[in-house]
């Protein structure tokens, strides 16, 4: 190993340093804007008596501040770029299809993970049919829709690409997985299976971006996962169980089967299901990966034209025949009258009759 740093290595490290600084700036702005959005939403809620609309208003403010801060930081660091490129939401023909595939994978994952609880009658739900609960459910769905977008813009959007530019794709995914696992591990009430669940979920969402180069699919997956667990079944999501919904769900049984207070994502069977969801996601995004991640094939090298040997050229020229002479075709004459030959002189004109 060389003990000296070559100019190429030094320039590469200098190029990676701004990427790390941008990632750190984006991460700091995420938490700072979250605090600002919370205070602004609280003030609006108290002033205009919004009540149930405060969580939705908070995530809307957070999303607005996130995009505004990301645009400002990117403009200062480099130059202005299109908003769709910055937040990894490119407008393309497959955008809605990507979102739908992500939602379908999440829905299937939740159903399969809850299947043992459903079959063993350990999943119970209580439904409250009131106008207030219906409005609360709609607002909660809107809040989750915007919150999942804000989360994916931050953790799978431009900051994630900055981290990839600094350390590479695989190390970036590993760092994101460790970060999400550490965030859950800090919770003293979270089970160890919850740490693994958070890491696997981060891997699943990161693969969604790596396979499509956009957050349409991770956004659909994140929203459908939280909406189906927290709203449709009324179960806790990573220990959060205060989502407003018409359905109040509960589970009975050991924590390894139900996940306990952390939610079904911490159940051991759910970990196996999420590994299967990763395999399904990779297979379902083969067309997207080919279209958006593979570079087009460009022919390399230089055009080479080999001249034929001089002897072959001479033989070809010698075999070229002269063009045949034109053949004159005589005009046709009526039957019984022979046409005069072209070389026969024309007879003299008849003399006029004389008067005698």
TrEMBL record:
GO biological process, one term: CAAX-box protein maturation
Keywords: Hydrolase, Membrane, Protease, Transmembrane, Transmembrane helix
Keyword Protease: yes
Compositionally biased tracts (Pro residues): 342-356
Domain of life from the UniProt record: Bacteria
One GO molecular-function entry: endopeptidase activity
Domain CAAX prenyl protease 2/Lysostaphin resistance protein A-like, first and last residues per copy: 137-225
Positions of region (Disordered): 333-356
Ranges that cross the membrane: 20-40, 60-87, 99-119, 131-150, 162-183, 189-210, 217-238, 262-282
KW Hydrolase (keyword) present: yes
PANTHER family assigned: MEMBRANE-ASSOCIATED PROTEASE-RELATED (PTHR39430), PROTEASE (PTHR39430:SF1)
Protein name: Putative metal-dependent membrane protease
Source organism per UniProt: Granulicella sibirica
Upper lineage: Bacteria, Pseudomonadati, Acidobacteriota, Terriglobia, Terriglobales
């Amino acid at each position: 190993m060389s003990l000296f740093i070559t100019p190429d290595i030094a320039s590469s490290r200098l190029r990676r340093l701004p990427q790390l600084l941008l990632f750190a700036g984006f991460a700091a702005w995420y938490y700072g804007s979250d605090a600002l959005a919370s205070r602004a939403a609280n003030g609006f809620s108290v002033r205009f008596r919004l009540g149930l609309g405060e969580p939705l208003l908070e995530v809307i403010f957070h999303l607005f501040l996130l995009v505004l801060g990301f645009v400002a930081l990117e403009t200062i660091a480099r130059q202005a770029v299109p908003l769709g490129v910055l937040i990894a939401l490119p407008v393309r023909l497959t955008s809605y299809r990507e979102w739908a595939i992500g939602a379908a994978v999440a829905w299937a994952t939740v159903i399969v993970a809850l299947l043992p609880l459903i079959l063993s009658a350990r999943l119970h739900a209580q439904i409250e049919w009131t106008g207030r609960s219906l409005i609360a459910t709609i607002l909660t769905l809107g809040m989750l829709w915007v919150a999942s977008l804000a989360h994916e813009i931050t953790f799978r959007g431009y900051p994630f690409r900055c981290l990839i530019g600094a350390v590479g794709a695989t190390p970036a995914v590993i760092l994101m997985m460790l970060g999400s696992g550490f965030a859950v591990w800090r919770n003293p009430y979270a089970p160890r299976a919850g740490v693994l669940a958070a890491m696997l979920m981060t891997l699943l969402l990161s693969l969604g971006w790596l396979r499509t180069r956009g957050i349409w699919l991770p956004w659909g997956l994140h929203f459908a996962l939280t909406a189906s667990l927290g709203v449709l079944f009324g179960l806790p999501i990573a220990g959060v169980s205060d989502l407003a919904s018409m359905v109040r769900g509960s589970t009975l049984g050991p924590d390894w089967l139900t996940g306990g207070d952390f939610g079904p994502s911490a159940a051991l069977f759910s970990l196996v299901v999420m590994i299967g969801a990763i395999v399904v996601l990779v297979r379902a995004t083969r067309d997207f990966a080919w279209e958006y991640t593979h570079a087009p094939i460009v022919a390399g090298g230089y055009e080479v034209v080999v001249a034929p040997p001089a002897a072959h050229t001479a033989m070809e020229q010698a075999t070229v025949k002269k063009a045949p002479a034109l053949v004159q075709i005589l005009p046709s004459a009526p039957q019984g009258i022979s046409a005069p030959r072209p070389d026969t002189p024309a007879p003299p004109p008849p003399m006029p009759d004389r008067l005698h």
